[in-house]
Design a protein that fits this description.
Layout: H1 2-8, H2 12-21, H3 47-56, H4 59-69, H5 79-92, E1 101-113, E2 121-125, E3 131-134, E4 156-157, E5 165-170, H6 176-184, E6 193-197, H7 203-212, E7 217-221, H8 224-227, E8 252-253, E9 288-291, H9 293-296, E10 302-306, E11 310-323, E12 328-338, H10 346-369, E13 376-383, H11 391-399, H12 401-407, E14 408-413, E15 423-428, H13 433-441, H14 453-460, E16 462-465, E17 469-472, H15 483-489, E18 494-500, H16 521-528, H17 533-551, H18 561-574, H19 577-582, H20 588-613, H21 618-630, H22 663-675, H23 679-703
Parallel strand pairs: 4-8, 5-6, 6-7, 7-9, 12-13, 12-14, 14-18
Antiparallel strand pairs: 1-11, 2-3, 2-10, 5-10, 11-13, 15-18, 16-17
InterPro entries: PA_dom_sf (IPR046450), PA_domain (IPR003137), Peptidase_M28 (IPR007484), Peptidase_M28B (IPR039373), TFR-like_dimer_dom (IPR007365), TFR-like_dimer_dom_sf (IPR036757)
Keywords: Aminopeptidase, Calcium, Cell membrane, Disulfide bond, Glycoprotein, Hydrolase, Membrane, Metal-binding, Metalloprotease, Protease, Signal-anchor, Transmembrane, Transmembrane helix, Zinc
Transmembrane segments: 7-28
C-alpha cells in the first residue's frame, strides 16, 4: 500500500499526523491538475474568501439555472432527467469553473409508472355500471405547460393495479383514528371506496389503514382549506395567484420505506441480491389514485377506480462533483439535492439545484484560479429518483456505508430552496445549530429591513433557550428529503436549509402547486421569489455553512447543544415516572446518563477553548475533530427499531407515542399503557430505556479525552 511507504520515512509526531491525514490523501482522486495555494496543517477559515464567495453568488445566474432546469418535465430516468445528468457533468468539468472531478454512479432500481396504453380512471357509475361522471385524466392546460407529451398524468407511484368498485365513503385524512370513528358510527367500510384528503398521515399509510377495514380502493385529493387558505375558484387560483387550481393533483410515492424496494440495505448494483417484487414489503395493499379537488367535490354514490400502474426496473444516476481537500482530503463535507421531479419541478427540486449549481460555480472558479482549496474535501451530489422514495441517496449510503461513516463530517441538504420569501427555515441535528446561526448573523436578509438573516428569522420562528435566551427555531429531521439516510442510517450530522413563508399569513401545509403540473418557472418567478433574492439568501447561507465546515481548523459543531434536547426529553419522561415505577422500571439510570453527557460535553468544550488559545498540535486538532464528527454515530443502534427500515438513531426515529420524549421509549410506553398489564409490553419499555441509556453513556465516553479508556 502506497501510504505505508510514505510513513516509512517519517518519525515521531509527524508519523502520527501522517496516519491521520496522509492515509486519506488518496481517498479522493486528484482529478484536474488545478493550481492550489500552499497548505499547512494549521489552515483555518479565511474570512476574505468567505466574503468573496458570498459576494459572488449571483441571483440572476440562479434564475437562469432554474429556467434551464425546469423548462421540461424530468421524471426520474426519462430522457430529460438523463440530459440534466449531462448538464451537471458539463458544469462540474468546465475548465474555468469546474471542480477537481465529476462522475456518475448508476443503480438499477424498481420504479412505478402509469400505463401509457390504459390510463388510470375514476368514474361515478350507476347500478348497471354505466358511467355517469369521469374524473380528469390530466390537469387543465392553463399555461400551455400542462399538456405536453412528457407530463406524466396524476398517479400514486407503487399503487397496485386493480379495478375496485363500491360506494364512496369520506374518511377525512385516512388515519387509523378516522377509520375507527367511521366504524364506531356504523358506517360500512367493507368493499367501499374511501375518499381522503392529503395530510395527517403519510400517503401510503392511508391505503394501509383503509385495507385493515376491508376497503377496496382509496382516492386522495388536496383540500383547498389545507393548501389554499380556502380559495378554490378559478379566478382566485393559479395562474392568478400562487394557489392550487381546481384541477391540480399532487403526485407522489406511496411506498412505505425509502430506498430501492428490492434491495433493502444493499446498493442496487448488478451483483446485489434482489427480492421478488411479489414478496417485497412496503407497497400499498390496495389500489389508490389521487384526484383534484374539483372532482372530489362532485363524487357521489357508486365509484369505479381503475389503476393500471406497472413496476419497471430502470437505471437511475447520481452525479458527484468533488473538490479535494488540501489538508484533510479524507474528511468529507457533503452538499446535495435530488434532480428528478414529477413534472417540471421548478420549486421541487430545481430551486435547490439552481442554488447548488451557482455555489459550485463560484467555488470552482476560485479553485481553478488557484486562490482557494478547502481544508477538507467537498462532495457535491445530485441524487436520482428521490421522488420515488429517496432512492439515489439511499443507494449511495448503502454502497459507501463504511467509508461515509468513517469520513463524512456533515451533510447539507438544499432541496426546495425557496418555499416562499419571508424567512430562513432550517432543520437539523442540534450540533449544527451554532454554525448555521454564525452564518445567518453575517448575511443581510432580502428586502429593505436592514436586518441580518438571523434577526429576520427570529421574528418569524423562535424559541426560548435555557442557554442562549431567544433564538431561532431549528426543526428536526424526519424523512422528507435526502438527508434521511445520512442521519437515520449513517448517523451523520445533517441539515436542510430553505426560505419559507410567514405562517401568520397562510396555513398552507406546503406551497400549493407541490407535485403538480403547475410547478413551473413562471410560478416561481411571479409568485414565490420575484428577483430571486431569497434564492440568493439561501445560496449565501448554505455556502457560508459549507465553507465553515470544510475550512475551519476546528469543526464548528457544538456538542453541548445536544444537552438542551436531552434535558427536554428527560423532563418529558419524568411525566411517565409513576406508571413506570408501578412496573418496576426506574428512570434513575436515564437521569444519570443525561447528567454524564452534560458534564462530558462541557468539559469537551473547555478543552477546545484551551487549545484555541494556543497553537494546537495537528494531532490534537485531528483527535478533537474526530470526536465532533463521530458523536452523532454514538446514537445509532441497529436493533432499536427492528420494525422500521433504516431507522437506527435513538433520538430521531419516528415517534408514534404522544409523549415528546425519546422516540423508542415514547412508542413502547404508549403501546404498553394501551396493553394494560401485559408483561411483554412493559419489558419492551425497559428495553427501550436501556437502549437510550447505553447510547447516552457511549456519547459521553466519546467526548472524554481519547486517552481515557
Amino acid at each position: 500500500m502506497q501510504w505505508v511507504k510514505v510513513l516509512g520515512g517519517v518519525v515521531g509526531a509527524a508519523a502520527l499526523l501522517g496516519l491521520g491525514i496522509i492515509v486519506g490523501h488518496f481517498a479522493i482522486p486528484k482529478g484536474a491538475d488545478s493550481p492550489a495555494p500552499s497548505a499547512s496543517a494549521s489552515q483555518d477559515l479565511d474570512l476574505k474568501i468567505l466574503e468573496t464567495v458570498i459576494e459572488q453568488l449571483d441571483a440572476n445566474r440562479i434564475r437562469e439555472n432554474l429556467r434551464e432546469l425546469s423548462k421540461e418535465p424530468h421524471l426520474a430516468t426519462t430522457p430529460r432527467d438523463e440530459a440534466l445528468v449531462q448538464l451537471l457533468l458539463q458544469r462540474w468539468q468546465d475548465p474555468e469553473s469546474g471542480l477537481d472531478s465529476a462522475r456518475t454512479t448508476e443503480y438499477e432500481v424498481l420504479l412505478s409508472f402509469p400505463s401509457g396504453e390504459q390510463p388510470n380512471r375514476v368514474a361515478v357509475v350507476n347500478s348497471t355500471g354505466a358511467i355517469l361522471f369521469s374524473c380528469r385524466h390530466s390537469e387543465e392546460n392553463l399555461t400551455g405547460e400542462q399538456g405536453g407529451p412528457n407530463v406524466v398524468p396524476p398517479y400514486a407511484a407503487y399503487a397496485p393495479p386493480g379495478t375496485p368498485q363500491g360506494p364512496l365513503v369520506y374518511a377525512n385524512q385516512g388515519s387509523e383514528e378516522d377509520f375507527k370513528e367511521l366504524q364506531n358510527k356504523g358506517v360500512k367500510l367493507q368493499d367501499s371506496i374511501v375518499l381522503t384528503r392529503y395530510g395527517g398521515v403519510g400517503r401510503g399509510a392511508k391505503a394501509v389503514n383503509a385495507a385493515k377495514y376491508g376497503v377496496a380502493g382509496v382516492l386522495v385529493y388536496t383540500d383547498p382549506k389545507d393548501i389554499n387558505d380556502g380559495k378554490s375558484l378559478p379566478n382566485e387560483t393559479f395562474p392568478h395567484s400562487w394557489c392550487l387550481p381546481p384541477s391540480g393533483v399532487e403526485r407522489g410515492s406511496y411506498f412505505e420505506y425509502f430506498g430501492d424496494p428490492l434491495t433493502p440495505y444493499l446498493p442496487a448494483t448488478p451483483s446485489s441480491f434482489r427480492l421478488n417484487s411479489d414478496n417485497a414489503s412496503g407497497f400499498p395493499p390496495i389500489p389508490i389514485q389521487p384526484i383534484g379537488f374539483e372532482d372530489a367535490q362532485v363524487l357521489l354514490c357508486q365509484v369505479n377506480v381503475s389503476v393500471h400502474n406497472r413496476l419497471e426496473l430502470r437505471n437511475s444516476s447520481n452525479v458527484l462533483g468533488i473538490i479535494r481537500g488540501a489538508v484533510e482530503p479524507d474528511r468529507y463535507v457533503l452538499y446535495g439535492n435530488h434532480r428528478d421531479s414529477w413534472v417540471h419541478g421548478a420549486v421541487d427540486p430545481s430551486t435547490g439545484t439552481a442554488v447548488l449549481l451557482e455555489l459550485s460555480r463560484v467555488l470552482g472558479t476560485l479553485l481553478k484560479k488557484g486562490t482557494w482549496r478547502p481544508r477538507r474535501s467537498i462532495v457535491f451530489a445530485s441524487w436520482g429518483a428521490e421522488e420515488f422514495g429517496l432512492i439515489g441517496s439511499t443507494e449511495f449510503t448503502e454502497e459507501f456505508f463504511s467509508k461515509l461513516q468513517e469520513r463524512a463530517v456533515a451533510y447539507i441538504n438544499v432541496d426546495i430552496s425557496v418555499f416562499a420569501n419571508a424567512t430562513l427555515r432550517v432543520q437539523g441535528t442540534p450540533p449544527i445549530q451554532s454554525v448555521v446561526f454564525s452564518a445567518a448573523k453575517q448575511i443581510s436578509a432580502p428586502g429593505s429591513s436592514g436586518l441580518s438573516i438571523y434577526d429576520n428569522w427570529i421574528r418569524y420562528y423562535n424559541r426560548s433557550s435555557s442557554v442562549y435566551g431567544l433564538v431561532p427555531s431549528v426543526g428536526t429531521l424526519g424523512a422528507g428529503s435526502d438527508y434521511a439516510p445520512f442521519i437515520h442510517f449513517l448517523g451523520i450530522s445533517s441539515m436542510d436549509i430553505a426560505y419559507t413563508y410567514d405562517r401568520s399569513k397562510t396555513s398552507a401545509r406546503i406551497y400549493p402547486t407541490y407535485h403538480t403540473a403547475f410547478d413551473t418557472f413562471d410560478y416561481v418567478d411571479k409568485f414565490l421569489d420575484p428577483g430571486f433574492s431569497s434564492h440568493q439568501a439561501v445560496a449565501r447561507t448554505a455556502g457560508s455553512v459549507l465553507l465553515r465546515l470544510s475550512d475551519s481548523l476546528f469543526l464548528p459543531l457544538n456538542v453541548s447543544d445536544y444537552s438542551e434536547t436531552l434535558r427536554s426529553f428527560l423532563q418529558a419522561a419524568e411525566d411517565l415516572r409513576v406508571l413506570l415505577e408501578q412496573h418496576g422500571i426506574s428512570l434513575g439510570p436515564l437521569v444519570t446518563a443525561v447528567e454524564r453527557f452534560e458534564g462530558a460535553a462541557t468539559a469537551f468544550n473547555q478543552r477546545i477553548a484551551t487549545l484555541q488559545e494556543g497553537t494546537p498540535d495537528p494531532l490534537q486538532v485531528r483527535m478533537i475533530n474526530d470526536q465532533l464528527m463521530l458523536l452523532e454515530r454514538t446514537f445509532l443502534n441497529s436493533q432499536a427499531f427492528p420494525e422500521e427500515r433504516y431507522y437506527s438513531h435513538v433520538l430521531w426515529a419516528p415517534r408514534t407515542g404522544s409523549v415528546a420524549t425519546f422516540p423508542g421509549l415514547s412508542n413502547a410506553y404508549s403501546q404498553a399503557k394501551n396493553a394494560g398489564h401485559e408483561p411483554a409490553a412493559w419489558a419492551e419499555v425497559q428495553r427501550q430505556l436501556s437502549i437510550v441509556v447505553a447510547a447516552l453513556e457511549g456519547a459521553a465516553a466519546t467526548l472524554r479525552p481519547v486517552a481515557d479508556l
